[in-house]
């Protein structure tokens, strides 16, 4: 059995070809552990701290659950269900609505976001290591040099895990997630005993606007953006899930509810001590031994999350002809080289992680909505699988010179639609934002316009392999 699993890892999981159901690695339980470990990485604490700027503790929880629930359901429909049904990753499936060359262009935008997140998580693990060393030795390792050096070591370890594949990620998650959930329960108990959740619930937001409704909408908008930002990862994982049920429901458990627990802790920490970075507050709140254990578990969750991002994005990079037949080490190196270089500016990138979240809002919502409309409404959940791997102009998914102009138009025009409601970088909003959030407006716009133009252009001109 072990030899069979190793063959699967080497021949199937690192390739773009569809994975047959009897060769898939993750059942419901396995994927639940993996996606929960992914969800409780440090970014949920950071997002919780961001929500605390605008809303109080109770509204932060409501905004997180509602925003993530809507985004994750749409996201799972756009990539998890199709990927689980046909055994292909999200980037391969995007060929059906972007075209072969359109997917390659989209890979560039996606790589910017995922490399940025990888650097942020490596930096957070680095800071956790520094906090542990500071506590144990009584010395100060907080200089930028140590942040960079430890960050590079963490990135190389994440690379090693990625080279071993989803099987090692599953083992790590199966061990870490149950222990970490126990630690979270202990954290909740300690905060309740020392301060009291009633007192936290009465605390005001840190830097809110004057309008309470506007504050909640921004918190809801940020939660939507956080939910949609999982797009590049869950398709690559869903292809190795044994059933559609195993690929869908763990997303709700992990990316909505488990992530909301982490978000709530981040919001509570921000309201209490003004810092949502667990590297800064876990030892002071938990004490030495439990604080160190908590930081170690959070760090392992971050390493697992990074490995998932490297794995899924590297799978997408195999769409590039020069990388299609390259060894897995070479493909992942294309992702890791800019990551390792970027870590020399790790503090700068970390301090501007909000830009990454804003860019994620802009690029993943349009893609998700076009995918849902294309797969469920225009293709009736049916694909001609040969067209994904036929890179010639004869492929039905070649559209026009490898691009679907309808998808290109919808994707480009979604940006000004978003900015009509909200600037994702400065969070400056227009009066219209009060009635329709920016991501919500973009979702509706992309779904309607993509459907209408696809019928008017692609169907009429017999492009894209749609059944008339």
Overall description:
The structure is a single chain. The chain has 468 residues and is mainly α. The chain has a single domain, classed as Hydantoin permease (Orthogonal Bundle). The chain is 75% helix and 0% strand. It has 22 helices and no strands. α19 (353-378) packs across α21. The longest helix has 38 residues, at 100-137.
Notable traits:
single chain; 468 residues; mainly alpha; Hydantoin permease; 22 helices; 75% helix; 0% strand; globular; disordered N terminus
Number of helices: 22
Distance between the termini: 46 Å
User: What is the CATH third-level topology name?
Assistant: Hydantoin permease
Oligomeric category: single chain
Largest sheet: none
User: Order of helices and strands, N to C?
Assistant: HHHHHHHHHHHHHHHHHHHHHH
Give the SSE layout.
Elements (H helix, E strand, L loop, with lengths): L1 H10 L16 H12 L3 H9 L5 H30 L3 H4 L1 H4 L1 H38 L6 H21 L1 H29 L2 H6 L9 H17 L2 H8 L5 H30 L4 H9 L1 H30 L3 H4 L3 H15 L3 H6 L1 H26 L7 H4 L15 H17 L16 H22 L9
Helix pairs in contact: 2-9, 2-13, 2-15, 3-13, 4-11, 4-12, 4-13, 4-19, 7-8, 7-14, 7-15, 7-17, 7-19, 8-15, 8-17, 9-15, 11-19, 12-15, 14-15, 15-17, 19-21, 19-22, 21-22
Quick recap:
The chain is 75% helix and 0% strand. By secondary structure, it is mainly alpha-helical.
């Amino acid at each position: 059995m072990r030899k069979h699993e190793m063959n699967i890892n080497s021949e199937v999981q690192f390739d773009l070809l569809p994975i047959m159901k009897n060769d898939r690695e993750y059942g419901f339980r396995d994927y639940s552990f993996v996606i929960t470990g992914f969800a409780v990485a440090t970014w949920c604490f950071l997002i919780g701290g961001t929500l605390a700027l605008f809303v109080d503790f109770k509204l932060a929880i409501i905004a997180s659950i509602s925003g993530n629930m809507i985004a994750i359901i749409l996201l799972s429909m756009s990539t998890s269900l199709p990927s689980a049904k046909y055994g292909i990753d999200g980037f391969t499936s995007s060929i059906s609505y972007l075209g072969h060359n359109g997917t390659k262009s989209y890979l560039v935008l996606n790589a910017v976001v995922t490399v940025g997140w990888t650097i942020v998580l490596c930096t957070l693990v680095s800071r956790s290591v520094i906090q542990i060393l500071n506590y144990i030795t009584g010395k100060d390792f907080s200089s930028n040099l140590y942040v960079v050096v430890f960050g590079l070591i963490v990135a190389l370890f994440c690379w090693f895990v990625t080279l071993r594949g989803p099987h090692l990620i599953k083992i790590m998650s199966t061990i870490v997630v149950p222990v970490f959930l126990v630690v979270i329960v202990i954290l909740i108990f300690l905060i309740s005993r020392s301060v009291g959740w009633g007192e936290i619930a009465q605390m005001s937001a840190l830097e809110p606007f004057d309008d309470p409704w506007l504050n909640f909408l921004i918190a809801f908008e940020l939660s939507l953006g956080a939910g949609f930002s999982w797009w590049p990862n869950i398709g690559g994982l869903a292809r190795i899930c044994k059933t559609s049920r195993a690929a869908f429901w763990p997303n709700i458990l992990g990316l909505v509810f488990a992530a909301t627990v982490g978000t709530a802790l981040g919001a509570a920490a921000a309201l209490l001590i003004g810092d949502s970075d667990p590297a800064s507050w876990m030892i002071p709140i938990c004490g030495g031994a439990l604080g160190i254990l908590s930081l170690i578990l959070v760090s392992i969750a971050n390493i697992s999350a990074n490995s998932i991002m490297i794995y899924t994005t590297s799978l997408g990079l195999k769409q590039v002809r020069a990388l299609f037949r390259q060894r897995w080490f070479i493909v992942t190196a294309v992702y890791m080289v800019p990551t390792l270089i970027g870590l020399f500016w790790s503090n700068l990138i970390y301090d501007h992680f909000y830009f990454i979240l804003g860019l994620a809002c802009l690029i993943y919502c349009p893609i998700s909505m076009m995918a849902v409309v294309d797969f469920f409404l225009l293709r009736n959940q049916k694909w001609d699988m040969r067209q994904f791997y036929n890179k010639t102009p004869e492929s039905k998914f070649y559209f026009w010179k490898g691009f679907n102009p309808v998808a290109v138009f919808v994707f480009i025009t979604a940006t000004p639609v978003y900015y009509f409601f909200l600037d994702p970088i400065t969070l400056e909003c227009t009066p219209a934002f009060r009635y329709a959030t920016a991501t919500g407006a973009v979702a509706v716009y992309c779904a309607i316009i993509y459907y209408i133009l696809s019928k008017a252009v692609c169907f009429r001109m017999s492009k894209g392999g749609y059944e008339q």
